[in-house]
Amino acid sequence: MSRALHPFRCKPGNLNALRERLLDAMWDDVGVMRDAAGLKRAIETLAAIEAELLSTGIADDDHAFNMGWHDWLNLRSLTEVSGVIARAALRRENSRGAHFRTDFPEPGELATSTFTVARLHAGEIEITDEPVEFTHVKPGESLIEKRVAAE
Fold first, then answer.
1. What are the pLDDT digits (tens) for 75-131?
2. CA distance to 4, 10, 59, 60, 67, per residue, from 63 (Å)
3. Is residue 112 a part of any domain in this protein?
4. Cα(130)–Cα(128) distance, rounded to whole angstroms?
5. Pick from 67, 60, 83, 64: nearest CA to 15
6. Is residue 53 predicted with pLDDT exceeding 80?
7. Which candidate, 150, 46, 34, 38, places its Cα nearest to that of 93?
8. Element (H, E) at 146
9. How far, in Å, CA of 86 to CA of 94, rounded?
């Protein structure tokens, strides 16, 4: 409950400006085209935005139907999730899927593909890689060929 009530203990500030900075950082440095320098810059920017958010409050008018409170809580979640996304993107050193690392343009070997996994452990986010388990179709195989052969 303390986490949710945090914004009532701080002096009100400009949440819209923080939200705009967050959106700009994610678009500019964590967007479709990314590289290590931009991702590191984004991680620093996101940490600064989070620190500023934690010192920014909202008016303590009423807790019922308080849209400012909802905005603050949503912005905190967006900031935290954005930090995880940026750190996971920095960890992945290939270009698979919709996002492209300009400093690692190759997709990597499909057979040794990994998932980037983020977990909260002892209050810290841990980013790891776990191998993709190809349980239905392995790289180079096709379900279509098996289906045609069976008919």
1. 999 999 999 999 999 999 988 788 899 999 998 888 888 999 999 999 999 999 999
2. 11, 15, 10, 7, 9
3. no
4. 7
5. 67
6. yes
7. 34
8. helix 143-150
9. 14
C-alpha dist (Å) from residue 82 to 8, 25, 27, 67, 76: 24, 9, 11, 22, 10
Structure token pair of residue 67: 């849209």
Residue 94 is given by DSSP the state S
DSSP E strands in 86-131: the ranges are 100-101, 114-121, 124-131
Instruction: Scan for tokens 């452990």, then name that residue.
Output: 121
- Give the residue numbers spanning the domain of 42: 2-104
Total number of domains constituting the chain: 1
Residue 69: what residue type?
W
pTM for the model: 0.85
pLDDT for the residue numbered 39: 98
Give the CATH number of the domain where residue 76 resides.
1.20.58.100
Cβ-Cβ contacts under 8 Å for 121 (sequence gap 6 or more):
none
Q: CB within 8 A of 38, min separation 6: which ones?
A: 28, 29, 30
